[in-house]
Write a structure and sequence with these properties.
The chain has 191 residues and is mainly alpha-helical. It is 66% helix and 3% strand. Strands 1-2 form a two-stranded antiparallel sheet. The protein is elongated and about 55 Å long. Bound molecules: protoporphyrin IX containing FE (2 copies). One protoporphyrin IX containing FE (HEM) binds next to helix 1, helix 3 and helix 4. It is a multi-pass membrane protein. It holds the Pfam family Ni_hydr_CYTB. InterPro entries: Cyt_b561_bac/Ni-Hgenase (IPR011577), Cytochrome_b561_oxidase (IPR052168), Di-haem_cyt_TM (IPR016174).
Length: 191
Amino acid sequence: MWRNTHDGYGLTARILHWLIALLFACQLPLGFLTQAAARDPALQFQLYQWHKSLGFLILMLALLRLFWWIVSIRPSPLPRTRRLERLAASAVHRLLLVLTVLIPLAGWAVVSASPLAIPSYVFNLVVVPNLPLAASDAAEAFWSRIHAVLAYGAGLLVIGHALAALQHHFLRHDDTLRRMIRSPHNRDTAN
Ligand code: HEM
Ligand code: HEM
């Protein structure tokens, strides 16, 4: 039930996939809004704290998922998928796995390198310490650029990834999307 089988994704991979997808979909516009709200410092501060809280949550879930992905078997490709398609899908999945770790790390670097030294209150519960980086305007601008490029780049990849899933479901009528939603019906032999 919890683990992947050769037929499909287990509950762990599916829960992590949709939870991270949902958080990621909120996090991109939230990151954009932190920039748009520059004229209202109080609102901007709140948006930043929410953005950092969700970001750290994504980082923890993404690390958990990466670990799970490494120790899990991968469901076999569905019949009638071409070799090039499989390679492209696998490359995009790997990139997304890595990006969901790298983007929050780059965001953490922005905050850590900022001379403003604003603490990160995660969900108003804990203060996450900064990374050991030298603070300067140039370092903050550097990490900020990296963070933005990776985040918007991942956004574009996700759009392609989601469109590919919808194409499989509605045009090719195969199980690609279904097996990321439902458990593999007959066997859960890996449990
Ligand atoms: C998957 C997680 C994350 C995503 C998708 C994301 C996305 C974004 C986006 C799209 C922006 C706007 C960039 C721009 O238009 O210039 C942004 C800004 C920002 N994010 Fe994140 N972020 C994530 C995690 C984090 C984390 C964990 C932190 C800090 C601990 C953080 C800190 C910041 C800061 C300080 C800014 C404003 C500075 C700047 O980059 O211009 N982010 N983020
Ligand atoms: C509406 C949005 C999304 C849809 C419809 C969707 C759909 C899917 C489907 C159907 C699969 C299985 C593909 C296969 O078996 O070949 C999959 C796998 C995957 N997706 Fe998504 N996805 C979405 C959003 C995202 C987001 C936002 C991320 C990451 C930021 C993501 C990362 C992944 C990864 C890494 C895999 C590989 C399997 C795993 O380890 O979970 N997806 N997705």
